[in-house]
Give the backbone structure.
Amino acid sequence: MTKPRSRRGGGRPTIADVARKAGVGAITVSRALREPGRVSEDLRRQIQAAVAELGYVPDPNARALASARAEVFGVLVPSLTNNVFAEVVRGIYDSLSDSPFRIQLGNTHYSGLEEERLLQVFGPQRPAALIVAGIDQTPASRKLLENAGCPVVQVMETGPDPIDMMVGFSHLDGGRTATEHLIEMGYRRVGFIGARMDPRSQRRLAGYRTAMEKAGLFDPRLITTTPVPSSVSLGRELFRDALAKVPTLDGVFCNNDDIALGVLFECHRAAIHVPKTIGIVGFNDLDMMQVAFPSITSIRTHRYEIGRRAVAMALAAIAGGRPQERVVDLGFELKRRESTAR
Amino acid sequence: MTKPRSRRGGGRPTIADVARKAGVGAITVSRALREPGRVSEDLRRQIQAAVAELGYVPDPNARALASARAEVFGVLVPSLTNNVFAEVVRGIYDSLSDSPFRIQLGNTHYSGLEEERLLQVFGPQRPAALIVAGIDQTPASRKLLENAGCPVVQVMETGPDPIDMMVGFSHLDGGRTATEHLIEMGYRRVGFIGARMDPRSQRRLAGYRTAMEKAGLFDPRLITTTPVPSSVSLGRELFRDALAKVPTLDGVFCNNDDIALGVLFECHRAAIHVPKTIGIVGFNDLDMMQVAFPSITSIRTHRYEIGRRAVAMALAAIAGGRPQERVVDLGFELKRRESTAR
DNA sequence: GCTCGGGATGGTAGCGCTACCAATAAGGGC
DNA sequence: GCCCTTATTGGTAGCGCTACCATCCCGAGC
């Protein structure tokens, strides 16, 4: 009666081994691990002892197959190196580190098609929740998310018509606030410089435009953008282009802090005084903004908190109680610094 | 004879549905999907048609359970926001995006214990390969990696005694090269400024020390470090500390580029001339180094390439052929710039 | 004392897939 | 023409776990 045990498996103990050792049924071991409250004190202790002695660890794959639900959070971001998303992801990781949930991270490269592809890969795993960046999913992606059968949180932005839940802030308001600040400080020929120009950047630009038009200062030639990925060196180049185009430029609202830093360095290099000759405002408020010389005014966004909140909302939804507010606006903050202190 | 189909599952088509529709056995469908070469042209076409018609996608959990091997790469890095690791991770993602492998990323927070914990979580999933940052695993982690039953690649550094494979470069040589460059350019009171001081930073410091001692310039008071996480603002503060301690300081080798940028900004603020009064060398050569004013000398490291190479080696090992060289040194490059051009 | 409800425990039957082996057909060498 | 190898296909039996349902026991209620 030698049972052909662990012919395939690596010989790791299974739930049956634990059950045998503890003198209980396998299902009771399963319950003791997942819903300890439903198992008597005595058995629970016996089972715990057996688990410890054998070094038993449940097989997540078997678990996922049997329960038709994997303890995995699927996370989709457009970039892994962009500090903004890295912070969101960090918030997600930190919030999930004590939970049984694993994380599967996908990089969409700012591509809707790639997002669709990744959702098709994530779906069959039956994740416990999905967190996706942005609110501009393709119709196909939207359908996939709606039919995912798990909580979905769109992060980084807020907007009408959430697929399920949302955490973020208004990029349009952010862009408007940044621009209004420049105007308030006396800048008149305020340019917009932006790289990548993903949907969020587009909305910041829309905010810029709103503010400029309201002040009667709008001029399309003040706008300099490119679809090229953002970088500090690109910021420098775009600023030179902008200045060549509009020599009277006296302020710039930058798409993000990298661009702003590039602008600052170019000003140093060309001996353009900041903030007297040119005022600079960035977006996101990376640590370096306050250290730069002169320090750079920026819109502080709460990336880490967005990640944490998204997880909290997803966990609440998994636990059954859909949270009251499905859309959470975490806002932003204008950090006034030397670069606009005329 | 109504079969109680999909009582639990979400009603998604299974391999049996495909087999039925194609008029073949389930196992043949499985083969057609995994080893198309072993199935005849005819059946393959029929099966493909059935797959397409039903929209069948294999269940990765069932697959992992049955084959005792998940199509997952486990990746462990100490930080998600540090650009250096983000680049490595990006290389890994890009290399794996066309493969069937998913990625499970773990954040160790520079903690050996956390690394152990994560390896214990990753292990039971039976990943196809593991990629871990650094070569200073705890003995427990080392054992877990040795017994993981899959290829293991240690990245970011090279060293003796690989667990399995390694891709990286010598941080000691990097630190030495950076310091020698400063000495060569005529700097004498060359300081070392470092934050976080993880094992790699320690080795850069050792390289600094080697170079300074060889030149007869070593003085322990020239070293300023902290275990606090690195940032641009911290760089500024550490530089002020260093200068207060050693007013004759005429050069600094910085642990990384963030610190170097902080030093540069402080020099601007305090009207200290770079490179005349102070020479600055960074480490990693982020994009902004070449844009900074003055541009900052740095040690260029090949982070993205490390990620790509690690995946290539792991895939080769999975395919059966352990690569010739188990330890790959991708080296580094000294980028001479204005900050040390005396 | 008897029935009933609810908590605790276990058995059975899969979840969807693949390893293993068997079976059959198709060629190749003598 | 026969035997053996190779290629192709399928059946069976799990992989390790949990959903579902049955069973059992105890105390409460009448």
